[in-house]
Design goal:
The structure holds two protein chains of two kinds. By secondary structure, chain A is an alpha+beta fold. Chain A has nine helices and 20 strands. Chain A is elongated and about 80 Å long. Chain B has a two-stranded antiparallel sheet. Classes of the chains: A alpha+beta, B mainly alpha.
Chain lengths: ~375, ~325
């Protein structure tokens, strides 16, 4: 295994930056998820690391080697694809053996490696079958096996779970996590599903519009999103963002809505709000950090219930606050109805403030 | 996979009164049969009757005068005469050479062209259009043009060969026992490789990009990627292309007939030109009919085995 370093990596198509000066370092044995919406450049970044497409600028290092100008086969990487990309005319055995055959290993060496990989992934009984005779989960395991036999420096995975049904996806998620722990493998994992990234990765790199937005542990990305995009992308349901106007009242700051209500901020939050470029401040709150009251309490603001979604152990409610929709999680025992007026209390310690112009997080 | 359930269900319901259900099944599909009937009738008239007539005629000795009322029944004598003649086996060998080489070379050239045109480069569209020209040109026109290109006195090819010092006098391509057939094969390949190219270009569209990338990461070279990924994906379309080319080449007539008429000394005769000569050159209608029947049997049995091998893959898949 080895570390992977991306230095100022650029990929352009004409005038469009698919990957815009991305730098990040994946430590040896680390599981990093590249996550972002469709077209954010995450798969392009992975393909650049793999060497499947030429770079427009920057460097990629694997281990202590600069691999920028090397062919994929010389980079000592293995890749798992979204559609598994198994060779349909070859048996499972020959799919696993293929990368070793290409490296001209001896027959006995190939056999022992294939058998070992099959054992790790529990697919020994499938070795003589053709890919089309396997279920989606089995195919995915074979694809992992084909990556595994090579004993590569880095595993690159391109949305490997997105073709599986929801139940199998959860199961394979833990299998891949286990795979990472057992092998101490360096993995770069592309997904559009932030939940996969949060649950599996040591670190997540959130991308949007070709830019790397934030690169940190899932916990830190969740707790301290650097901007409004990351805040709204990570977490389910998404963080609610309410655009408001800041005004000073003595030493403290109050946020006012177009409807006329006021939300006084704590001294710490006031300090943050004062750093905004203008008086436009966006209040961010996660569903679990707000409390819902049926009647007004000090420091609460009014809202109107939009929908109520019971899920069993938690009920999610969407409430119109000012012009934005706020997600709230409630105990199932709380009974509210659509169009009911409710009062929302924010947790000053756990609320987020963003500059309404730059969309960046405001820090103390 | 999805079709297996209704099939299994219908098999269960049929069970005991099998005969009745056959009629019911036919009755249920009566409109389908009604739609097919006109075509079936037309085929009976334009194919069925000629086949019967040819079979009938092949058992007679016919007068050259075309007065078929004077024909004499001779049983299988026409067949034995043909099968025991040396010329039949010579023509058969020439037909096999003609078909095998034409098909194989046209297929390989078409494959090469399709692979080249599958990559993106400037002028690809124009090149693709140009390579289609031979297939679009009328075979009769092309044959005459090639005849002149090959001409022993005025031919461009011969003149170029002399100019470049490859030969001291113009080469006699088609009026030559050794080079006659190969020269015609060149023309035939030129005429039909575009067909293989189009078919294979369509086939190449179905090769998944991800598989090629996977193979690239697995360390396969360009050639290995072709052999392990692209070619298996082209298997189906290749089989169909080869089948169609083979049938077409067994039945070739225009190019050899116009360019050499089967000559010199029968060196470029193939089955169909031979039948044509027997019938319309020497007015031996009965013999020509017997010849046709022999070809029919050979072609049908070849076709049967070919189609069987072609569909065996599908059947294996259907069984799963």
């Amino acid at each position: 295994m080895a570390e992977v370093v991306l230095k100022d990596v650029v990929k352009t198509y004409g005038n469009i930056f698919a990957v815009n000066h991305v730098s990040l370092k994946v430590a040896d044995g680390e599981f990093v998820a590249l996550v972002g919406p469709s077209g954010c450049g995450k798969t392009t970044t992975l393909n650049l690391v793999a060497g499947l497409i030429p770079m427009s600028g920057g460097d990629v290092m694997i281990g202590d080697r600069v691999v920028t100008d090397l062919d994929p086969k010389d980079r000592d990487i293995a890749m798992v694809f979204q559609n598994y990309a198994l060779y349909p005319n070859k048996s499972v055995y020959n799919n696993l053996a293929f990368p070793l055959q290409m490296r001209k290993l001896s027959k006995s060496e190939i056999d022992s490696k294939v058998q070992a990989a099959a054992k790790v992934l529990d697919i020994t009984h499938l070795l003589q079958r053709k890919p089309r005779e396997l279920s989606g989960g089995q195919q995915q395991r074979v694809a992992l096996g084909r990556a595994l036999v090579r004993d590569p420096k880095v595993f690159l995975m391109d949305e490997p779970l997105s073709n599986l049904d929801a139940k199998l996806r959860v199961q394979m998620r833990s299998e891949i996590k286990r795979f990472h722990q057992d092998l101490n493998a360096t993995i770069i994992y592309v997904t559009h599903d932030q939940l996969e990234a949060v649950t599996m990765a040591d670190k997540m790199a959130v991308m949007n519009g070709g830019f790397l937005q934030q690169y940190d542990t899932p916990a830190n990305v969740f707790a301290h999103p650097v901007n409004m995009f990351v805040a709204s992308f990570v977490g389910s349901p998404a963080m609610s963002l309410i655009p408001l106007t800041a005004a000073t009242k003595g030493t403290d700051v109050v946020l006012t809505s177009a409807e006329g209500w006021e939300l006084p901020l704590s001294p710490v939050n006031s300090q943050k709000a004062l750093k905004a470029k203008s008086n436009k401040v966006v209040l961010g709150a996660r569903h679990s950090t707000v409390r819902l009251h049926k009647s007004q309490v000090p420091g609460s603001v009014p809202g109107k219930v939009y929908t109520v979604e019971p899920t069993g152990d938690v009920t999610f409610a969407q409430v119109f606050v000012s012009s934005a929709i706020l997600n709230i999680s409630l105990a199932p025992s709380v009974v509210i109805r659509p169009d009911e007026t409710v009062f929302i209390e924010f947790d000053q310690e756990r609320m987020h403030l963003f500059d309404g112009e730059t969309e960046m997080a405001l820090a103390g | 996979m999805t079709t297996s359930t209704p099939q299994a269900a219908s098999r269960q319901t049929t069970g005991a009164p099998a005969k009745a259900s056959v009629w019911r099944s036919i009755w249920n599909h009566r409109t389908d049969y009604a739609y097919v009937l006109p075509a079936l009738f037309a085929m009976l008239v334009v194919i069925g009757y000629p086949v019967y007539y040819t079979l009938d005629l092949s058992l007679f000795k016919t007068p050259a005068s075309l007065q078929l009322k004077d024909k004499v029944f001779i049983g299988l004598e026409n067949y034995s005469t043909i099968l025991s003649s040396t010329s039949f086996w010579k023509v058969t060998l020439q037909t096999l050479i003609w078909t095998a080489f034409s098909t194989l070379i046209a297929f390989l050239l078409g494959l090469g062209a399709a692979l080249a045109l599958n990559r993106e480069f400037i002028g690809r569209g124009i090149l693709r259009g140009l390579l289609l020209v031979p297939w679009v040109v009328s075979a009769v026109a092309a044959s005459y043009v090639w005849k002149w290109l090959y001409h022993s006195d005025f031919g461009v090819i011969g003149a170029l060969a002399v100019q470049f010092g490859l030969s001291d006098k113009p080469i006699n391509f088609i009026d030559n026992l050794q080079t006659g057939l190969p020269s015609l094969i060149v023309v035939n390949v030129w005429k039909e490789f575009s067909f293989a190219m189009i078919m294979l270009m369509a086939g190449l569209q179905t090769v998944p990009e991800q598989l090629l990338r996977a193979a690239q990461v697995d360390g396969a070279s360009v050639w290995q990627r072709f052999w392990h990924v692209t070619f298996p994906h082209l298997k189906g379309v290749s089989m169909v292309t080869i089948l169609l080319l083979t049938v077409q080449n067994f039945n070739s007539f225009i190019i050899p007939w116009i360019m050499t008429g089967g000559g010199p000394a029968g060196a470029t005769d193939i089955w169909i030109t031979q039948v044509y000569q027997l019938a319309f050159g020497r007015q031996r209608w009965g013999a020509a009919a017997a010849y046709s029947v022999i070809l029919f049997v050979i072609m049908m049995s070849l076709g049967y085995f070919y189609v069987r091998s072609l569909t065996s893959g599908d059947r294996a898949r259907a069984v799963e």
